[in-house]
Known about the structure:
single chain
Amino acid sequence: MKRLSLITIAALACASSTFAQEPAVVYPATGIEAPTQPTGKSSSTYTKLERITPKPGRGTQGEVRVRVRDLVAVRGQEQNLVQGIGLVTGLAGTGDSGLAARQALQNLLLTQNITLPIGSLTSKNVAVVWVEVELPAGIKPGRRVDVRVSSLYDSSSLVGGTLVRCELTDMSGTDVYATAAGAISVGGFSVGGEGATATQNHVTVGIVPQGGKVERAIDGSLVSEHGFIYLDMKALNGSFGNTVRIAEAINAIYTGAAIAQDAMTIRVSVPTDLPEESHVAYLASLISREITPENFARIIINERTGVIVMGKGVRITEGAITKGNLTVTIAESPETSQPGPQSGGTTESQARTSLDVQEENRALTIINGAVELQEVVEVLNVLGVTPRDLIQVLQAMSQSGMLHAEIVMM
């Protein structure tokens, strides 16, 4: 019987394979079969979806009046932030892995007269956290407030944890204004295994509902020592027009009581014969007045999300604009060439690149002047660009002097 060589046997074994693939190529001189080469490739596309034009909802036809309390803040009645460092216990193996958590745990045990070497402690069930509480002016000792807790180190979750009692101080760190303790509410979950995880919401920040107790009163004075109440405009509401309108609204009921000092402050005098127990009622009557706020020529832009918000005071002068998009799509799909058995070859990788370039060809578009907000929207919609393209158009229009508005980038 004629013997078959090993190479011939290998070739016959490959030829009898039942896998569905392209016909193999056999080199007659050697009998070595070339393996089937990969034929797949990657792809990448950029698609611009159909333009969506929402219908405006029904709104008021008259002027929008706003309460003074929504535009101003009373000086001396600010929120006060107190803060501290705390320890969260009861975590299901999602605590900190560093030395800080073990040191904090060691200090906690020392308060209960338990002394253990730090090397014998594990921190998988505890986490060091940053604790914050906002206290309004005038709050009294004993009141309960919500507490905000956030992880400081590498804890993966605060779900199921309990905040150990900690002290919260002012920025100086000397005066304790509140204490905090209690179960943490995260409002989410995080589960996973070796191959997959599922997380809902942010699980390293949580709230302790009513977990803070006020220990020291926060002073809050309404009237200055000279007998004035100061109404400070909120940051984005400040303007000379708004302060004048607020002063006029107050003077309509208390003649000569209010003076607009600048674009951010209204000074209101308190009658000398008004008893101290009536100061709160006097202030409430001031800030309950309503005015028509000034229209701001302001555009708020958030480049991360593509959000654009325009105020009613935005104006556009006539000009010409063109905007052509350049879209470059690149797909890399390297292919690997595998040598046949007993061929002595080496595995080689070949680069495969798919490149697609598309450039829009647009003519100049005449932009008419616009005064009313509806006209501004209609004029800009003529361009037919996406919100992200519109952000660039608005910035260029502002630099050219066509757009008369303040652009605020978020």
